[in-house]
Amino acid sequence: MKRAQIELLGLFGIDPKASLRKISTATGISLGFVHKVTKLHKFRPYKIQICQALTEDDFERKIEFCEQMTKHFSKISALVMNAFSI
To answer: How far is CA 59 from CA 28, 41, 55, in A?
Structure first.
């Protein structure tokens, strides 16, 4: 039992993207047991998110966006204040 757990964890160490079903098929160990071992050792599925690289003008664009949003919210709050000051 312990040996099978070590084998499974080693396989996930070699190929962390492997699915439970793929590992189960490759080892001949039941899918339920593979699931139980991963749960016992607190392995969690995850998906790597690829992000864009920052460019030189990103900082300026972020500042511009913040300024536009600040103006927009100022107009909205002024409108709301005028509407309820009756």
So the answer is: 53, 42, 8
Residue in this structure with the two tokens 């899918």, named with its chain if needed = 31
Is 34 part of any domain? yes
**What span, in angstroms and rounded, lies between the C-alpha atoms of 86 and 83?**
7
**Mean pLDDT of all residues in 32-43:** 92
Mean pLDDT along residues 13-19: 86
- For the record, the structure tokens of 61 come out as 């664009």
**pTM of the model as a whole:** 0.52
**How many domains does the chain contain in total?**
2
Q: Give a yes or no: residue 48 inside a domain.
A: no
Q: What are phi and psi of 19, to 5 degrees?
A: -85, 160
Q: Which of 39, 7, 2 is nearest to 23 (CA)?
A: 7
Which residues form the domain of 60? 53-86
